[in-house]
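User: Thanks for the earlier help. One more: Polysaccharide deacetylase family protein. Can you show the sequence and predicted structure together?

Assistant: Of course, both are below.
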Amino acid sequence: MTDASRQRSKRRPVRRLLGIAMLGVATFALAACTPAPDLAWQPPVRAAVTSFDEAVGDVAGAEPGSTPLDHYRIRDSAPAVDARWTEVPGQTDLNTRVRSLVVDTVGAFASRLGTVYEPEAAAAGAGLGSRGCEAGSSSTPAAEALAQGGATEGDALVITCEIVVASGSEFGERVRVVEGTVGTTPAVTRDESFVFFADTATAQQAGGADVITADAALSIWNELVLAARRELGALWDTQVAPPSEANAAVLAQGFADVTPTPDGGLRIGIPAGLLTPEMDVSGGADAAPPISPDGETTLVVGEPISHRFPSIHIAADAAAPMLTDLGRELVAASATPQPLLAGERPLAGERDVNCELFACVALTFDDGPAPITETLLGQLRDHDATATFFLVGPNVQRYPEIARQIDDDGHQLGNHSWSHPQLTTLDDKKIEEEVKKTNDAILAATGERPSVFRPPYGDVDARVLTKVGMPSILWDIDTLDWEGPPHETIVDRGANEAEAGSIILMHDIHDSTVDAVPEILTGLHDRGFVLVTIDQIFGGAPAAGNSYTSAR
């Protein structure tokens, strides 16, 4: 080795050490410049135009209580049925469609269980005074909705509803059907919703599918899948494949449940069974269940999204291209609330009431009219209730204006004789005179001739029936108010002893009776009763020559 070579070999370690030293300095410098990690950072996600949020605003329309609607509810224990719905005065076609859905569903459910639905009055305190549609009932979990129906064990059916638009001439109602079992082995076997729309000015009818265009399905599918992924915690979007034939059919079922929202968007029900590979964002079936961005809700991998969320909400911009002309009208009506335009509501005593569907009861008052009768009429008006008044002739002549008011308020007029005798003790001519004089007095005061009569003391026989020529209306519930019992006793007898088809006897000449009427009406409504006249409870005028104690 030459001297020059030895000098080069001695210098190499020095260069290597220098390079290592410089690398160390550079690393130190880079480390000194690195910011502290942001542990709260999350990758950006596309701005959502679709969500599962039900809080999209109140239903458009008039102030609560000012819209003229008819609210109904029925309940039976065998089969276990609880159904509530709302109808619009004057909208015969709409009302027929809604009621037919309820009646047909109840009938099919009862038939499947090998039984028959019959109107039934609930026990005191049942809470059935709450009737018609309930805000938020569409988004109540199905199992919870089923449990609210009153059944405690076995098969049950619950039908509930929600008004989705009531503004100007536009009205829409969603009816939800939930079936399953309650008790020790609860399960939901059906959860389906149907939307009914009507233009109250033209009576034009429509359904949820009429709100969106025929080619909107793919856009809705895309929004639904991406929204589901975000809800499951996905931090990236993906290319959504078109729905399979099976999923397309399931999605189409949801189009029966399309409604406008007050923010200009759409709410679309998610039918059971929708599931796609894009919704699996967990990394595989063996991974832990995904946690949604709120850190609380989870969805098991492979579980249809409808199990967790009943609907999606598509915002206004995304919804606009999907709307038909009808859809745009409904969205505009929902976004600009006006009082609902509806037909005039018939008086309670003049409505067509089906007492084979509803638990009916007839409240009857004897011996009037009297000055206190005017207070009673106001109470009936306040409770949207009706009654039948069996009048005595002299009181009609003494207070013709009160008799006329009874008729003007839609209540039924009945004959209770002239002098309140025991008719079976009179001769034929006197019986005829007792009835004719009172009929003539009622006709003169009101313009109406009674078609029913009540014999004083319930004293009637075949001879009396023949001479009177009208049906004899007795009773199966006697409050014995004429004896002057305590207030609580009158209320209990009047509100809690009746069954479906009962006829209740009271007298509108006693202050104590009239004082008890508001609580009696509230109690009867709470038990699910509809207050009707004698003609209504029998489905028409009962036959002459017969005597009736109830409509059972």
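User: Great, one quick takeaway?

Assistant: DSSP finds 15 helices and 18 strands in the chain.
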